[in-house]
């Protein structure tokens, strides 16, 4: 008796076998009741799945998507239409609006909305997905000003300052706006020449809310250092905004980068 | 798709022509992940929005459905996974019991195929990784490579998840069918194609 087949039986059901292996399998199935039973069962499941139904699309979904794309077109077109003079003015207006939103954000924070989800594992998971290529960023740009404007247009409720860290060897890749448990989070990534990735996050919230972190005090700021699944997540507070930095590799390097980033933001 | 106030750029027209016909497929995929119609609608809308933003990076001639599912699963994992409303999933010991039963190939031949509602119910109780693999390959016809890319896993992992998922489905569906007294199906002698 030749060896039993395993995943190759599935490949056969899916029509993925090369002619030689298929012939070998056919010969084997003629004499092996066990493999033949497994093959029949896999084929039965595939046939059962073929009759699975499809739900109709809700009638207003196409319209909702159309409206969202219209909005996207307007956001994408707006900066290009502005003259340099208007652009300068727009920056002032954006700054003023951000200031107002920051006050509104602090007001919201004082209402102490309960934080139901721990942001640390979520950020660690986001880093893992981004590193594996399973996550894409909404805006790919190495221009910190452009990403800053993108976050401002997204109406986050706070001023998401994107620092230019090229002097430290970190090149901006781009950013996204994410919603986690009601928090709108500005998420952006840097990459070094050695292909090291650092993910940054900013949101209206409490950097100390996640339990279990080690507290490190540097230049009067408390940093909350969490180690999770081989990644280091460092959180700290900048006014009403919680900031986070996520990376793998040497934890001390991540902590020192967080120190440096916080100092740059405060300067 | 209704008209917006902004003049349609060629990019928008190309985008809609390519991806709007796939809305039903995407919605059904989203529904199987979230188990909630409102969440599925939100997930599909977000997927289209992200796809539009990154449309310049899409290569003409490649599989648009696989590309959209890659975005959809990424958004689901990052945004909706924590708030999904799952039917009670199979407990780990039940999974092991079912897998062990499938390994015993001396049992009765497969019963007649179950109705689609029972298939959906069994699918909904699979662990999410397994369910997503079956969904993409069996229900939405993605290749193994495309499904592995969409789920952010290696090809071997995808094959293994698919194999175990199908065994679990077989065990769960035949358990159910035999309890309801479905007759056995005549054994066929047809070999691999």
Identify the notable features of this structure and list them briefly.
heterodimer, A: about 270 residues, alpha+beta, Phosphorylase Kinase, domain 1, 2 domains, eight-stranded antiparallel beta sheet, 8 helices, about 20% strand, elongated, B: about 190 residues, mainly alpha, 9 helices, about 0% strand, disordered N terminus
Write up what this structure looks like.
The complex is a heterodimer of chains A (267) and B (193). Chain A is an alpha+beta fold and 267 residues long. Chain A has two domains: 7-112, no CATH class; 119-266, 2-Layer Sandwich (Phosphorylase Kinase, domain 1). Helix content of chain A is 46%, strand content 22%. Chain A is built from eight helices and eight strands, in the order H-H-H-H-H-H-E-H-E-E-E-E-E-E-E-H. Chain A has helices at residues 7-13, 19-29, 33-50, 61-81, 84-110, 119-131, 144-153, 251-266; strands at 139-140, 171-180, 183-191, 197-204, 214-218, 221-228, 231-238, 241-248. Chain A has an eight-stranded antiparallel β-sheet with strand order 1-2-3-4-8-7-6-5, with helices on both faces. In chain A, helix 1 packs across helix 3. The longest helix of chain A is centred in the middle third of the chain and has 27 residues, at 84-110. The radius of gyration of chain A is 26 Å and the shape is elongated. Chain A starts with 6 loop residues before the first helix and ends with a helix. Mean pLDDT of chain A is 79; it is low at 79-90 and 105-115. By secondary structure, chain B is mainly α. Helices cover 63% and strands 0% of the residues of chain B. Chain B is built from nine helices and no strands. Chain B has helices at residues 10-19, 23-34, 37-53, 64-80, 92-103, 116-124, 128-139, 144-151, 155-179. In chain B, helix 3 (37-53) crosses helix 4 (64-80), helix 7 (128-139) packs antiparallel against helix 8 (144-151) and helix 8 packs across helix 9. Chain B is elongated. The model of chain B is unreliable at 1-6 (pLDDT under 50). At the A-B interface, helix 1, helix 2, helix 3, helix 4 and helix 6 of A face helix 1, helix 2, helix 3, helix 4 and helix 6 of B.
């Amino acid at each position: 008796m030749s060896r039993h087949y395993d995943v190759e039986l599935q490949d056969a059901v899916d029509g993925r076998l090369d002619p030689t292996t298929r012939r070998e399998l056919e010969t084997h199935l003629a004499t092996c009741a066990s493999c033949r039973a497994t093959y029949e069962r896999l084929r039965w499941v595939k046939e059962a799945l073929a009759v699975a139904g499809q739900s109709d699309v809700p009638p207003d979904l196409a319209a909702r998507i159309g409206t969202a794309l219209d909005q996207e077109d307007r956001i994408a077109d707006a900066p290009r239409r502005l003259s340099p003079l208007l652009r300068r003015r727009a920056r002032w207006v954006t700054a003023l609006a951000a200031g107002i939103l920051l006050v509104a954000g602090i007001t919201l924070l004082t209402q102490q909305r309960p934080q139901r989800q721990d942001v640390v594992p979520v950020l660690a998971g986001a880093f893992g997905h981004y590193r594996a290529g399973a996550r894409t960023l909404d805006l790919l740009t190495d221009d910190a000003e452009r990403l800053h404007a993108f976050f401002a247009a997204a109406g986050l409720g706070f001023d998401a300052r994107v620092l230019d860290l090229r002097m430290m060897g970190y090149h901006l890749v781009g950013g996204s706006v994410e919603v986690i448990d009601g928090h709108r989070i500005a998420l952006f990534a840097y990459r070094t020449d050695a292909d090291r990735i650092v993910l940054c996050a900013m949101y209206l919230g409490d950097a100390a809310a996640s339990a279990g972190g080690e507290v490190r005090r540097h230049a009067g700021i408390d940093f909350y250092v969490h180690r999770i699944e081989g990644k280091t997540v460092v959180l700290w507070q900048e006014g009403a905004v919680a900031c986070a930095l996520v990376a793998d590799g040497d934890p001390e390097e991540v902590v020192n980068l967080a120190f440096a980033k916080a100092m740059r933001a405060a300067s | 798709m209704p008209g917006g106030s902004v003049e349609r750029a060629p990019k928008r027209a190309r985008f809609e022509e390519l991806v709007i016909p796939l809305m039903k497929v995407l919605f059904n995929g989203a529904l199987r992940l979230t188990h909630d119609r409102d969440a599925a609608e939100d997930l599909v809308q977000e997927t289209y929005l992200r796809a539009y933003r990154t449309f310049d990076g899409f290569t003409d001639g490649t599989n648009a459905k696989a590309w959209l599912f890659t975005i959809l699963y990424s958004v689901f994992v990052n945004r909706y996974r924590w708030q999904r409303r799952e039917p009670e999933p199979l407990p780990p010991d039940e999974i092991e019991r079912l897998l062990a039963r499938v390994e015993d190939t001396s049992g009765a031949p497969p019963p007649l195929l179950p109705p689609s509602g029972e298939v959906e119910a069994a699918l909904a109780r699979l662990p999410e990784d397994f369910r997503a693999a079956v969904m993409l390959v069996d229900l939405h016809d993605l290749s193994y490579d495309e499904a592995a890319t969409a789920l952010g896993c290696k090809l071997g992992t995808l094959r293994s998840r698919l194999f175990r998922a199908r065994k679990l489905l077989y065990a769960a569906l035949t358990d159910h069918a035999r309890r309801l007294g479905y007759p056995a199906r005549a054994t066929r002698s047809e070999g691999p194609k």
